Amino acid sequence: MDLSAEHIKNLHKYEIRVLQSIEYLMTRYSWVPKDEIIHNTRFSAGETEFRLSKLMEKGMIKYSQVPYSGYTLVFNGYDTLAISHLVKKGIISSLGSCIGEGKESRVYEALGTGPVILKLHRIGQRSFQTVRKGRSYLPEKQHCPWVIASHFSAEQEYLALCSLQNHVNVPIPLAMNRNVIAMTYIAGDKLSDCTLENPQEIFEEVLSQMQEAYHRGYIHGDLSEYNVMYDGDKIWIIDWPQWISPSHENAGEILDHDLQTITKFFQRKYRISSDKDEIRSRVTGC
Ligand SMILES: Nc1ncnc2c1ncn2[C@@H]1O[C@H](COP(=O)(O)OP(=O)(O)O)[C@@H](O)[C@H]1O
Ligand SMILES: [Mg+2]
Question: Model confidence at 128, in pLDDT bands (50, 70, 90)?
Fold first, then answer.
């Protein structure tokens, strides 16, 4: 079921309270027993049951009888908690439509003081194991690895956007809660969807942005024509959750992959050829 702006808007405050309660209890249970929710919310059994059934209807929680009877949040519920928080803090006042759905994220238009983008990070169980490989500090045992992984992914992207702000052309990060980042809307198109009049200039600009990011400690890690936008004046680099530091043991390999992807694109679409070693030393400065 899709996350619907209407569902979020019409959410009763008791339903938010039940979602929060399940979220909290999920640190102790894979499936949260109804009695625990009643105890935690201090709602009556009837009220709790009614709110649980509403949340089930809206596709925000799931119920199972196996291995024992209980409830758990699903992505729609977790996203809802984050978005409600951003509404409460005044970051956004309305949620628009979904403009992008990738393997590990959903992107929505929203309205705040201006047009805002909400990026909902949604990392499933399998990706979490890949993410965990290089990061020993992520907990081994947790009932809900997708919650941790999605929150972690949003944190990583938010950190990059905050650090690169004013130095590299990235969307301005406005706020983050749980797995959701609010950022400014870029009024442009992906390079994959543009026909550039000045491709050589834009290619140089991508390299110079990569160089600036590199010197500030960031290698994008997923650079491609799909993650660079052009607004007719400037280019913007988006989609940073998988950045790594130039001091990471795989930095050389990952930087080469980024460079190869972007140079291949300019070669294929605009016949711009470039020397791999020269480009690499331009970005790294050595
Ligand atoms: N700040 C933004 N302004 C405008 N469009 C955006 C912005 N961020 C993302 N998008 C759109 O959403 C799509 C997906 O976002 P992205 O961050 O690349 O996530 P992913 O590729 O991991 O799904 C982008 O290709 C772009 O079309
Ligand atoms: Mg992308």
Answer: low
